[in-house]
Every structure is written in C-alpha cells, then in structure tokens.
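tool_call predict_complex ligand=fe (iii) ion
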Amino acid sequence: MALFSKPIKTLDDLFVHTLQDIYYAENQIVKTLPTMIEKASNPELKSAFQQHLRETEHQVTRLETVFGMVGQPVKAVTCAAMDGIIAEAKEVIGDCSDAEVLDAAMLCSAQAIEHYEMTRYGSLTAFARQLGKGDVAALLHETLEEEKATDHKLAEIAKTRVNQIAA
Ligand code: FE
Ligand code: FE
Ligand code: FE
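tool_result ok
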C-alpha cells in the first residue's frame, strides 16, 4: 500500500481513489501544457494544445463538481503513471534538437497522456454506473468523450502534417 493512502475495501472506495488519482493527473496536465504550447512550432499543433488546456481546466472544475456530488472533499493522490508519462515527455523534449521532430515527439507524448486519461474516465464511468450514480457517470462520460476527441484530433494532425514535415 502506498504511504498515507487509505485502504480500498469497496468499489465505492476504489471509485473515490480513482477520482483522486485523475484529479492529480489533470492538475499535472494543466501545469505541463503551457510548456508544450510554447515549444510547438506547427500552428495546428499549438492551437490543439491551447484548446485542450482550456478544456482540461474545465475538466478539473468538473471533477470538483463530482467530488461534491459524491459527498467527498476535493483531494488528489499522486498518480505515478502520469508523473512517469510527463517525466518521459520532458526527457524526450529535452533530447530533440530539431523543431519539426520536437513537434512529432510532443504529439506522441500528448497521445500517451490522452490514452491514460481515457482508461481512467472509462473505468470511472463504469464504476459510477455500477454504483447507481447515473448523474455522476454522465459527467465523467462527457470528459471521456473530450479526451477521445482530442486523441483523434492529435492523430489526425500527426498523420496529415506533423509526421510528414518531421520526415
Ligand atoms: Fe483531461
Ligand atoms: Fe494513476
Ligand atoms: Fe486530455
């Protein structure tokens, strides 16, 4: 068991823990995206990052609403996975010497972030439904759809532009 974390006995405990995990992850993404926006050269990539930063800020607020709906204090628990994805992104960003290749690398890292989020919001939506919290499930599903749309958009920018230019 991780230090200072509460034991997880029920599906309800697991739901709250996962909520705290993604709350931490979203906040880390809010802190990381400005650097990616600043370093992006391709205008479409830059604007996709900008749009998703605004969306992510809204997702943080939406999670705070969910904490309220389930009668829990707003709390974050360290998400080792998101810390790892972001650390890896920073490492590869630091190693890229070519601006176009850097765009491709950041896009690749951004998709890793979206995929992690998709697994979490998918599970959270399923847990909420199972626990009979349909209104909470609906809110979490909204975010899931935003993450999926972002992933598709990034994949499209990669295939049609950024990867070609980098090659
Ligand atoms: Fe998000
Ligand atoms: Fe996590
Ligand atoms: Fe996202």
